[in-house]
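so the lab meeting is tmrw and i was supposed to have these ready like two days ago... anyway. pasting both below. for each one the top line is the aa sequence and the line under it is the C-alpha cells. i havent really looked at them closely yet so no promises
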Amino acid sequence: MAVSAGLIAEFKKLLGDQFVLTEETDRLSYAYDAAVLAQVVPALVVMPGTEEELGKTVGLAYENDLPITVRGAGTNLSGAVIPEKGGGIVILTVRLNRILEINREDLYAVVEPGALTADFAGAAAAEGLFYPPDPGSQAVSTLGGNVALNAGGLRGLKYGVTKDYLMGLEFFDHRGELVKTGSRTVKCATGYNLGGMMISSEGTLGVFSKLVFKLVPPPKASQAMMAVYDTVEGASETVAAVIAAHILPCTLEFLDQKCVRVVEADAKIGLPVDAAAILLIEVDGSHQGGVDEDARKVREICGKCGSEDIRVARNAEEKLKIWAARRNALPALARARPTTVLEDATVPRSKIPAMVRELNRIALKYKLQMGTFGHAGDGNLHPTILCDKRDAEEFGRVEEAVDEIFDVALKLQGTLSGEHGIGMAKAKWMEKETNRATVEFSKSLRRALDPKYLFNAGKKII
C-alpha cells in the first residue's frame, strides 16, 4: 500500500517532518514484534506528541482508509503489532510517555500510553505507593500495551493483572473523537463499562490517549525462597498444594531443568543445575509475623512434596539473586538457539501437574528442545521451544507441537492465553476455545466501532 505524497504532507504539517518516517530503512524497525511471524513493513510510521495530535492522526488515517496499527515498544509475543498485509500506518506512542499525576491522597495515577511500566512503578514507589503488575518486559514495555493485552507478571497470583488496576481511560474512536470512561473514584457506575471492553482489545476498537490506574500501599514485610526438587512432579504438585492450603504467595514461579541449566550457563548465579525443577516463592504482607507464618507453612508443604533443599533469602542481595533466576529465563533461552517459540498456555491451578506432564510428553513426541517456566501459582506456564525456523522440517514439528499444547490446555479447561494476547498468532484458535456465536458477536461489536475494519486488522477476531 502506497501513501500519497499529499497525505504524507498533511501528516508532516500536523506532526513535524522528523516525526513522520517515510524511508524504508526507518520503517523496517516496525515490521515485527517478539512473535515468530512474518514481517510486514508499514507504509508509513508517525509519532504524535500530544493528545490533540493523536486524535487528529487517527481521524486523518481513518478518513483516508489507512489500516492503523498502534505500537508501544513491540515486546508482545502474539503478533499484535505487526502491520496488516499491505502495510498501512503505524502510530508510535513513544512521545506520549508522560506520567501526568500520582495522587497519594486518593491512590491513583494518570499516565499516557507510551509511559514505560518500570518507570511508572518506580515513580509510584518514590511516592511510597505500589503498582503491582510486573510483566517480564516491564523495563521496556509500555502501559498502553499492557492495557491492550491485559499484561500479567510474576505478582499476578496475589495482586492480579493490569485489568485489576485500570480505573478509567480516554481513547479516540475511528472519527478521531475523544471517548471517556471510568473515573478517579473507587466506585463508578456511570455509563457502560467501556474500560472493561478496551482491556485486551489489542488496538482493535480504538486508540488509547490517557490511562488512570489504581495504586496500593506497598507490603511492609516479605520472605523469598528457592525450593529444589528431584522430580518435576514434586514441584508441580507443590503448586497445587500451596493453593489448596489457601496460601497466596506474592509470587510462585516454576523453572524446569532445561531452564535452570540454560539460565545458570548464561548468568552464573549459583542455580542447582542437577535439579529436575525449582520453585521460586515469595510471601509478603503487612506484618512480619504473618509473613513468617505463611513462609513456614509453604516450606512445610514443599518438604512434604519432595523438596529436600529449601534456600531462604537472608537479605535483599540474596532475594535479588533468586528473582534474577526467573527474570533471566527468557533472555537466556532466547540466546540458546536461533529461534525461540514462547507460549503461555494457562490452566486452572489444580491442573498444573497434569499440564506439566503433558508438556514433557509433547516435547518427547515431537523430538524438540523445550524448557518450561512461568507463573505456576496462577496456572500460567510458558513452554518455550528452542529451534531454528530456517530448518523447515524441525519447524514443522514445532507447529504441530504448539497445536497440541493448545489442545491439551483447552482439554484441561484452560485458555489459549493467560497474558500474551491473541494477536495474529492465536486468532485461528479462538472459536475452538469459545464457539461460533461468540466469534460472530465479537465481529459485530468490532464492525460497529470500526466500520471499515481498519483498527489493527487481522488481529484477535478475524
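ok protien two:
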Amino acid sequence: MRKKSLIIAIFLVVIDQIVKISIDNFLRYSEIIELIPNFFYISKVYNTGAAWSMLSGEILILVGVSLIAMLFLINYQKSFQNNYRNTMAFGLIYGGLLGNLIDRIIYGHVIDYLKMLIFGYNFPIFNLADVAIVVGFILLIYAVIKGEDKVDSKNKRKHKTG
C-alpha cells in the first residue's frame, strides 16, 4: 500500500466512523429524515450482509472476504502507475473496506444511513464507505481502460505524484 493511499484511507475511515457513530446516536432505528423530497433521505438501519444484504448474518465470511480483498488490492496496486487518480482510487477502496470492516468486527453489522428513491425504485440503503468503494472501483476501471494498470520503465519516473 502506498503511503498517500494509506493517508486517504485513514482520513476516510475517520470521517466514516464519525458519521456512523453520529447517525447511530442521534437517529432511532428506521427513522427517516427527508432531505430532498421524493429522492434523498437519511435513515438508520443495520446491515448484517454485504450489498443488497447478500450473505446476511455471515459476518465471518464477510470479514474474511474483506481481508482477502484488501491483501489482493495492496498487491494489485503495485502494478498501477503511481498517479493522483490511481492513488485516490485505491485510498477510497481501502478506506471503504476498512470502514465497513470495523463495523462488522465491532458491532456485527454495518450501519447504513443513505437512502434514495430513484424513479420510484427504493434503492437499498448504503453509507459513505460504500460510496467510496464504488467511486474507487469506477476510477480503477477508468485507469485500466487508459492502460494505467501496467507500469513500464519509462512511466515509473513520469508518474511519481501519488
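from a quick look at the 2nd one: The first strand starts at residue 32 and ends at 36. The helical segments are 3-26, 59-77, 84-107, 128-145, 153-158. will dig more after coffe
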